[in-house]
Amino acid sequence: MQPFTQHSGIVAPFDRANVDTDLIIPKQFLKSVLRSGFGVNLFDQLRYLDEGQPEMDTSTRPLQPDFILNQPQYKNASILLTRDNFGCGSSREHAPWALLDYGFRVLLAPSFADIFYNNCCKNGILPIVLDESTINWLFKKVYAQPGMAMTVDLVTFEILAADTTLSFTIEPYRRDCLLQGLDDIALTLQRAERIREYENKRKQECPWLFEDLEL
Amino acid sequence: MAGKTLYDKLWQTHLVEQRDDGTALLYIDRHLLHEVTSPQAFEGMRIAGRRVWRAAANFATPDHNVPTDPEERRDGIEGISDPLSRLQVETLKNNCAAQNITEFGMLDQRQGIVHVVGPEQGITQPGMTLVCGDSHTSTHGAFGALAQGIGTSEVEHVLTTQCLLQNKARNMLISVNGPLHPRVGAKDIVLYIIGHIGTSGGTGCTIEFGGTAIGKLSMEGRMTICNMAIEAGARAGLVAVDDTTIDYLRGRPYAPSEAQWAQAEQYWRTMVSDDDAVFDTTVTIDAADIVPQVTWGTSPEMVTGVDGHIPYASDMSHDQKRQSLRLALEYMGVKEGQPISEIPLDRIFIGSCTNSRIEDLRQAAEVVKGRKVAASLTQALVVPGSGLVQQQAVEEGLDVIFREAGFEWRDPGCSMCLAMNADKLEEGEHCASTSNRNFEGRQGYGGRTHLVSPQMAAAAAITGHFVDIRHWS
Asked: Measured between beta carbons, which residues in chain A are less than 8 angstroms from residue B127?
């Protein structure tokens, strides 16, 4: 995964609560066996006027002009400002894959759905939780200055926006993984012996769960 | 010292390692796989040159993409007409074969929706941890197991390490007490709860569902409730183990052998919250307040009683709520104040990991028996959750009841719950659906979903609109 230390980019305001992962990437695009190529179908139902299908040439599809990412000032946005419970619903990791593939590296909201939040952190996207009043303030600023840029620094826990410095928090483990772009499987495998010990011990207590293991 | 919650017990017994930063390495007893969220995980594992940690802890079945039309299924994978769906189903088969993972393939009688198959086979057991790359894995919590949906990166992590990295969630208890109306069921309970606490009401929590009304539910009903814990924002839902749990498990193919049964049962019976356990949040609900529920909007929290109406913007206290209402009304093509009974319907879907088990089909069939599907409807579908549910239903003659009424009787799969296969709504169509999500486009581009119980869907199929099932004769 691509490490995340600091990121500067344009902020797109997506003023909608409870955005579900079906809306982020509709199911017809989940038939891919790859991790990439989902960006052109990010928010497909909101972004285009027609029904999208896999393998369609998206460059010729009619765009929904009102949708935020179709407005010229937000086309190259890489920071998404949004509302409560973003990413709810399906566990599809295709949702962060689509956001990342489009170019988003930072998401700002008062809350995120658990599985989605976790999936973002595994893909080098930084989801930042800010209180509702701060989010409201940011929406106001972005509306006042469309195309406004912002800098997010994971090293210093700081956001620089509209000449103001805001701070944020994130769990230390997630921060470490993001900063270093760590592959957590490699880290967990370093604890293989500990996992075997656990299996040995647990087999004494619940042997019916370990019929396959000769310990 | 305060007692432990069921979640505390499940957490502590699966803790491989607690780190100083609050993260824990949690051991995973069983991992279920399906064709949509696993191919990238297997591929990642291959690229990194890693192996499956413990093949026997994994079970797979294709469900999201499989056709439910018996004609299209007859020739197995080769017969799937959509080449992308065919590739995914085939990829699952090949990945499982290469890694020695048990797969209930498309033509296997045991195939079905992964969350129906796991419990039915006895793979899901109390006291275990279970994961699957699907948010509705919360279903299995009905057995007093810690069951969670995970993303594809985590699927790969579990395949290769048999562990998951996690922070402990908070403990939430939702206690539902008192007698329920006989025609009000598990689906109504859980929709009512979501309406009450909201779709992010359980975020960051593991919800234990308790109280006398939950205790009286069958395992099927408990699965319906835990299935939709995720719709309340909780990654996992739980119900304590009791006689109902133990009775359900007896004789299941992957349940413990006769020789180990007594020891297992004794252990399982400890999978309850202690009397003096402390929950971070407790919500108490009086079952008598629950009427048959119908969702009217594009989020499961947009729900009301069948005797109610679509809310007015002026009822909403918050700007965000008013904006969500406005978007939902526009998408759904309904109006403020419109009575639920006056929503026009086009299709009926009885199925999904929420409501496709034998009890669900029995309840729907009882309503339908001897009646005809309303002529105004385009389609009424029944999609059993697994080949074994289908077989049982046929043995009980339920298929005949549905067919004679004018329903289509299909083969098992996720079907119109998420419309990855050919079963979908047309733009603008309204569907009374026993599934779990009424999101925009979920059941088809521009489709409009109303979530209800199997009995409510069955009654709507006969009348062509929503009726109060409590008054059904």
From this structure: 206
Q: Are strands A149-153 and A6-13 parallel, antiparallel or unpaired?
A: antiparallel
User: Long-range contacts: B16-23, Cβ < 8 Å, 24+?
Assistant: B16/A191, B16/A194, B16/A195, B16/A198, B16/B163, B17/A191, B17/A194, B19/A173, B21/A171, B21/A172, B21/A173, B21/A176, B22/A171, B22/A172, B22/A173, B22/B167, B22/B168, B23/A171, B23/A173, B23/B165, B23/B166, B23/B167
The per-residue pLDDT for range B20-52, each reduced to its tens digit, is 888 999 999 999 999 999 999 999 999 999 999
B43, with CB counted inside 10 A (0-12, 13-18, 19+), is middle
Contact B151 A122 (CB under 8 A): yes
Q: Would the CB atoms of A22 and B157 count as touching at under 8 Å?
A: no
Q: Which tokens sit at B228?
A: 């939709």
Pick the residue of B9, B125, B152, B451 with the most A CBs within 10 A to test the interface with A by mutation. B152
Whether the CB of A49 is below 8 Å from some CB of chain B: the reply is no
Query: Which among B150, B165, B235 has the least Cβ separation from residue A188?
Result: B165
Closest by Cβ to B165, choosing from A33, A90, A184:
A184
Q: Is the pTM of this model over 0.95?
A: yes
What Å distances lie between residue A20 and A37, B173, B218, B231, CA to CA?
20, 25, 31, 11
Contact at CB, A123 and B153, closer than 8 angstroms: yes
Q: With a cut of 70, which residues of chain B have pLDDT below it?
A: none
Beta strand residue intervals within chain A, DSSP E: 6-13, 79-81, 106-109, 126-129, 149-153, 158-161, 164-167
Which tens digit of pLDDT belongs to each residue from B105-141? Answer: 999 999 999 999 999 999 999 999 999 999 999 999 9
Chain B residues within 8 A of A14 when measuring between CB atoms:
none
Average pLDDT over chain A, rounded to an integer: 96
Mutate to test the interface with B, among A31, A119, A211 (most CBs of B within 10 A): A31
Query: In this predicted model, what pLDDT tens digit does every residue of B390-432 receive, in sequence order?
Result: 999 999 999 999 999 999 999 999 999 999 999 999 999 999 9
Q: Assess A207–B contact: CB distance below 8 Å, yes or no.
A: yes
Instruction: HSE, CB side, 13 Å, CA atoms: give it for residue B21.
Output: 12
Domains of chain A: 6-210 (3.20.19.10)
Fill in the DSSP letter of residue B386: B
Residue B304's beta-bridge partner residues? Answer: B294
Residue A183 has pLDDT above 90, yes or no: no
Helix orientation angle between B152-161 and B39-47, rounded to the nearest 10 degrees: 50
What are the residues facing B381 on neighbouring strands? B349, B408
Q: A39: exposed, middle or buried (C-beta count within 10 Å: 0-12, 13-18, 19+)?
A: middle
A34 touches chain B (CB under 8 A): yes
How far is the alpha carbon of B220 from chain A, nearest alpha carbon, in Å?
22
Inter-chain contact B160–A207, Cβ cutoff 8 Å? no
- Which residues on chain A are in Cβ contact (under 8 Å) with B13? 202, 205
Q: Which runs of E-coded beta strand occur in B330-424? A: 347-350, 379-382, 408-409
